[in-house]
Write a structure and sequence with these properties.
Blueprint: E1 10-12, E2 17-19, E3 23-29, H1 40-44, E4 51-58, E5 67-74, E6 78-79, E7 82-83, E8 98-104, E9 107-113, E10 118-123, E11 128-131, E12 135-141, E13 147-154, E14 170-175, E15 179-184
Antiparallel strand pairs: 1-2, 3-4, 4-5, 5-13, 6-7, 8-11, 8-13, 9-10, 9-12, 14-15
Length: about 190
């Protein structure tokens, strides 16, 4: 007797598009992030329905030992001189790590410890990012096209956005002709 062979979910590595999988989709719009960007006047002057990013997650079982797989599609753009970015978060269960794989576009992964130590990693097609436990993370699109990254994380990790209500220690702004300038956020 031969066992049944199923076609598992697939991802197109060049675009981050899923196939053969039930998906959960979530869109984050500019209106969802008040007081998020450093230039509130520029934020108010933009279309509140502007899509900043979409997240597609394979609808899969959850619980201890289970993993989620999803792709974030972060669109290109700026509010004032600040690049579009994801909300960013710690995990509710801080001991849980995560892995990101750069698929298309270019940008940065901002990583920050609870004590405020921050660092940036370049995200590009083929890059692999190990996000340690106890580390907040945010994607920033510094390019002219959509930045897509595949993520794998424990389903029990959860998201804690409230811990970063004051923002990350670093912000990324555009400067002279696509060069990036990284400066510490002034609180």
């Amino acid at each position: 007797m031969n066992p049944d062979v199923i076609l598992p979910p697939q991802v197109a590595w060049a675009s981050g598009v899923f196939a053969n999988a039930p998906l959960i989709r979530k869109t984050t719009r500019l209106a969802d992030l008040p007081d998020f960007f450093s230039d509130n006047n520029a934020w108010r002057g933009c279309d509140p329905q502007q899509r900043l990013y979409d997240v597609e997650t394979i609808d899969s079982p959850s619980g201890e030992g289970a993993l989620y797989v999803g792709v974030t599609h972060l669109y290109a753009g700026k509010i004032g001189d600040e690049f579009f970015m994801t909300r960013g978060h710690f995990h509710q269960r801080r001991e849980q790590g995560e892995v990101y794989f750069g698929l298309c576009g270019r940008g940065l992964l901002l990583l920050q410890t609870a004590s405020g130590e921050a660092r940036l990693e370049r995200v590009k097609p083929g890059s692999v990012h190990i996000i340690p436990s106890f580390t907040a993370h945010r994607l920033i699109n510094t390019g002219d096209e959509t930045l897509s990254a595949l993520a794998v994380w424990p389903s029990v990790a959860g998201h804690d956005y409230a811990a970063l209500a004051g923002g990350f220690a670093l912000r990324v702004f555009a400067s002279d002709h696509h060069l990036q300038e990284w400066e510490a956020r002034n609180d």
